[in-house]
Design brief:
Oligomer: single chain
Shape: elongated
Distance between the termini: 73 Å
Structural class: mainly beta
Order of helices and strands: EEEEEEEEEEEEEEEEEEEEEEEEH
Number of helices: 1
Radius of gyration: 26 Å
Largest sheet: 6 strands, antiparallel, barrel
Strand content: over 45%
Length: about 325
Amino acid sequence: GTLSSSFESDDVIVSTITAISDKYAAGKYKADNIAIKLKLENPTINPFQHINIQKGSYIKAGSFSYENISLGKSLINMVGDLSSAAGIWQFTGGLSTEKLTLKYGSQALQLKDIAARLSSGSDRMEADGNFSTAKVPAKFSFALVHDFNKALGSLSIKPLKPLELNNENNKLSLLLTPWPYPFDLLSGSIKLTADAAWSQGNDFSLTSRVNLDDAGGHYGELVFSGLSFDHAFEILPKIHSTQTGKIKLKQLDSGVTASNISTSLTLETAETGALPQLAIQDLHGEIFDGSFSADNFVFDFNRSNNSFKIKSTDIDLAKIVETQQLE
């Protein structure tokens, strides 16, 4: 690293510090290809008790990781005040970065325009701010707390601007890489809330609430439109609903078109594989100018085939014949 200082003023020392390191490790925290540049201003009297970190300072890393969570290549700009007294340090300031890739296991989420207010000491860090998703337009606020000594913390994310989906350019599957699910949303609006918590010796937990408005997309070869629902669920350590969700669907095309569908569902952990299953209740809608309903059943995403019985009333037989002729 390097250090250069200017003592032209009687009251203030102006310095620039640079440092690089191939690797860094402290317990479960790891980083590589680190480069730091700090532009500092501190008083000539007791210069190490108060340091002002000025614009142009940054921390750059090839990657940073904690257990299964990691950040990809990033450059984080920083400004603020660093003070030290009796061996205890405290930083208050701001951080920003144009883009950041957040990874959990093999999945990656690309973020941009991140700006945060940060207060941190040797034992605890608190941050709050805003960010946007890079691949699908949306904006969120966040609040982060982490205890360094106990290796525990929490993160809360709230929507400021919803995810606006628009066919191929802004589809939901662009949000995560790779996209692991057999469905996709191509249109509509999504409001997403998430809360995460972690602690030493315990599983990482992640809960979410999703509100969809007039969404369209597909599940396999099933095409749907006008999907609206509000649902709260836990994603990690095991995916399951924390409350029953209500769904309304204007149209579903499986070769036969059904409309005005409504149902209640609960997301559950499945014993047949890694994907969850849906417990469907009170399903009813319209088909062939009549109506249909179904007894409660379970739809397992791990199975290539799922079956259930539909009860129909007052349907138009001519419509059924017409459908068979078209096939």
